[in-house]
Design a protein that fits this description.
The complex is a heterodimer of chains A (about 100) and B (about 260).
Chain A (H helix, E strand, L loop, with lengths): L9 E7 L6 E8 L3 H12 L7 E6 L11 H5 L23
Antiparallel strand pairs in A: 1-2, 1-3
Chain B lengths: L8 H24 L8 H29 L5 H6 L10 H4 L5 H22 L5 H29 L3 H14 L11 H8 L10 H14 L22 H16 L6
The chains are: A alpha+beta (about 100), B mainly alpha (about 260).
Chain lengths: ~100, ~260
């Protein structure tokens, strides 16, 4: 039930506001297991009708990109304007684009 | 049938609503004590939410009681200006706060009782009461689930958590039977289609609790030699006076104060 520090493990909470939208990260909380994490998330993040669906994920199970890798991860995309559709001129006689 | 006095229709209808409202109000007060004292801040929130659900039920029920009574008393008058002998809650909800296991034992019993109660009240001849029941039953289903989750984890957890959960059940047991006592007002309410007979709730509520205990590897406590009685007639324990003092002193010191 508890981790090495004697406290409950940390969980990340994702809440979907309504049908058709995606789950969005709402915050994190501590809980002894997944079912209790769901219930705590309900109490902490949907008490004002913020959501219709909740996901919880152990924070330890998330692999995150590192700030140290930011340059190699994200900068190369900066000068590749042709990856945006707006880079391309649409010929006038193309009807269904 | 007369409409005044302690046996009139109005008085009994009012008394029935007060019993339901006082159970919710007094337990809301006790659950509020857990804020900053639960094992984790997440549990502070959970118990706070449950307490606020119960407070909402109490407000609706006491407001309705005041309307039925017809003497111009509102929810605040009934919550803050009645004396101990006029409170009709059962002893279970006024017991002083124990450890977390004991609280989960109390919540499991009380929410299981309330779940069956509100299910029965959905068909009440008092339309306002039926409306309150319709909203409350969803809340109470969640309260019961919360208690269930904890009783399962503590009962089927470590040796220490099992021992303390079992001790909590034993501590609460003498106050369980009173929930299902058929006091005269409830009997009258059931006969007139306003309320439900408490003794009819015993089997389904007990069935639920015992199933949870079995799954949690806990033992159903033996019937205690002493059991509480008389809360519905205004007979309370020492703890009730202190609870009311804390709950009522602000309103009595500063009547009509708002923020």
């Amino acid at each position: 039930m508890t981790d090495a520090t004697g406290t409950w493990p940390l969980w990340e909470v994702f809440v979907r506001a309504k049908r058709g939208l995606s789950h969005v990260h709402a915050g994190s909380l501590r809980a002894p297991d997944a079912q209790m994490a769901l219930r705590n998330a309900r109490d902490l993040y949907t008490r004002r009708q913020e959501g219709v669906s909740i996901w919880v994920v152990r924070s330890a199970d998330i692999t995150a990109s590192s700030p140290d890798e930011r340059d190699s991860f994200f900068d190369p995309a900066a000068d590749k304007v042709y990856r945006h559709p707006t880079f391309y001129d649409v010929p006038e006689d193309v009807e269904y684009l | 049938m007369s409409t005044t006095g302690t046996t009139g229709t109005t008085a009994r209808h009012t008394a029935y609503l007060l019993g339901l409202g006082d159970d919710a109000l007094v337990y809301a007060q006790r659950l509020g004590e857990w804020l900053t004292r639960a094992p984790q801040i997440e549990e502070d929130m959970a118990l706070g939410n449950i307490g606020l659900d119960l407070l909402g039920q109490a407000r609706a029920l006491l407001t309705r009681a005041g309307e039925v009574e017809g003497r111009g008393r509102d929810e605040d008058d009934l919550a803050y200006l009645r004396d101990e002998r006029d409170f009709r809650n059962v002893h279970l909800v006024e017991r002083p706060r124990g450890d977390f296991g004991q609280e989960m034992a109390r919540l499991l019993w009380f929410s299981s009782y309330q779940h069956e109660l509100y299910a029965g009240l959905l068909g009440s001849g008092d339309e306002v009461l039926a409306g309150v029941a319709g909203k409350a039953i969803k809340e109470v289903t969640y309260h019961r689930d919360h208690a269930t989750q904890w009783v399962l984890r503590l009962g089927d957890g470590t040796e220490e958590s099992h021992r303390r959960m079992q001790a909590g059940l034993e501590a609460v047991q003498p106050y369980v039977a009173e929930l299902f006592d058929d006091d005269p007002v409830s009997v009258w309410a059931a006969e007139t289609g306003l309320g439900v007979l408490p003794s009819t709730l015993r089997e389904p509520a007990t069935g639920y609790v015992h199933a949870v205990l079995e799954q949690a590897t806990l033992t159903v406590p033996e019937e205690p030699r002493w059991r509480s009685r008389g809360g519905r007639e205004g007979i309370h324990s020492e703890a009730m006076g202190y609870l009311l003092a804390e709950m009522q002193h602000l309103h009595r010191s500063h009547p009509g104060a708002t923020w």
